[in-house]
Amino acid sequence: MAERVDGMTPANTTRILVLGSKLAALAKESFPASPIEALADPALAGLDGASGRAELVLIEADALPTDTVVTAILRLAQVSPQPAVILTGASIPIVLMRALLKLERSDVLEAPFHRTELARAAAPLLRAADPAHSMCWGVIGAVGGAGATTVAVEIGAALAARGGGRGGCIIDLNLADGAAAAYLGVSANMRLGEAAAGPARIDSALLDTFCTPVCEGLDLLANPRAPEAFETATPQTVMRILEVAAHKYDWLIIDMPRHRRSWTLDVLHGCDEVVIISELTVPALIAARKLSQELETELSDRPAPHIVLNRMSNRLLGPAPTLREAQRALKREALATLTSDWESAAKSVNLGGPILHRQPRSKIVRDIAELIERLEADKTKSWDSGLRIGA
Ligand SMILES: Nc1ncnc2c1ncn2[C@@H]1O[C@H](COP(=O)(O)OP(=O)(O)OP(=O)(O)O)[C@@H](O)[C@H]1O
Ligand SMILES: [Mg+2]
């Protein structure tokens, strides 16, 4: 019989089936809001009914006879729509690996592994099956004040201006003292600390109370200033907010905190693109290079982050490095540059609202449009396109 591990079934959570006795507890930690069924029976009675309901099947290869697992995988291959499958085990026999080839979406996790590895393995498999899942870009500053919030706000405003669809949301994960709400001239309504006690209770209705409408097609999720917010928000709460938001909006732009949090890599792993914002100083360029290298290593199964150089100005006006010198320091090409325009930036933040609305003729607006175009084309995945050195 299928045993119910989690009693709640919000409409927008992943329905999970676990085959094997020990994986259910770990699955519950990895997917706190998901309804989970577990089949520990070695004969897998009830598999056909349960697999028809599941979007993700986790199989503990070591807990079941190999023949049983092969049979289970072949039966899963017949289910329509086919669930994603993750096979776990300390040493997985070749015969099981071959059986997995019959599936549309599968992965293997070598035991022992952490709950975050399970969630990370599942994310791309689930995304591949969900065409309604939103696009998600993360923006992170290489150093303080590099312009991450400005870029996140302007990208959000520019995408919203296209109109149509379900619109998008800027999510400010600088939970203690984020500036996105002030830049946009709206209030911050996300009380993430209160939601931390029960991440499973975060659903689209609660998300609606957390959101602040900014303009047509654009909402903001931002915490009011709260010095303790980083301590009270758990990784489960942060990931759950993103999961529910991803079902509500066509796109998400995340303003990431610069300092590493327990959930930073999980959030970045879920992003389709990660943009590191640097300014044109040697310390910022070195920090951008190091941050990029760290993320490339730690998120090796995801596309490499992009670097954007902010506040570019005419060399004649100051001693800043040229683009060629900057890219030499970065040891790679930048995806895009943003012109320095203090007047437009300052006017907009002081009046409250994106530069796109307050100072539409600013070169920053034009440069953001170019940046979006490049991100959409993802031209620099192999580092062989984007800006030419010395351009
Ligand atoms: N291209 C630009 N030209 C001129 N000023 C800019 C530009 N981009 C950002 N600024 C200004 O630089 C300052 C810092 O920008 P912003 O707050 O976006 O940086 P940040 O990386 O988010 O900072 P923090 O580390 O505090 O989160 C702001 O006053 C902003 O208006
Ligand atoms: Mg900021």
Brief characterization of the structure:
The protein has 17 helices and 14 strands. The protein has 391 residues and is an alpha/beta fold. Helix 4 links the parallel strand 5 and strand 6.
- Fill in the CATH topology of the largest domain: Rossmann fold
What name goes with the CATH superfamily of the largest domain? P-loop containing nucleotide triphosphate hydrolases
Taking Cα atoms only, what radius of gyration do you get, to the nearest Å?
Answer: 23 Å
Largest sheet: 8 strands, mixed
Helical stretch tally: 17
CATH class of the largest domain: Alpha Beta
- How far from one another are the termini? 65 Å
Average pLDDT taken over every residue: 87
* Secondary structure category: alpha/beta
CATH architecture of the largest domain: 3-Layer(aba) Sandwich
Taken as a percent bin, the fraction of beta residues is 15-25%
- Which hetero ligands occur in this complex? adenosine-5'-triphosphate, magnesium ion
The coarse silhouette is elongated
Helix content class = 25-40%
Structurally, how many domains make up the residues? 2
Strand order of the largest sheet: 9-10-8-11-7-12-13-14
Which stretches are poorly predicted, pLDDT < 50 over at least 5 residues?
A: 1-12, 379-391
Tally of DSSP β-strands: 14
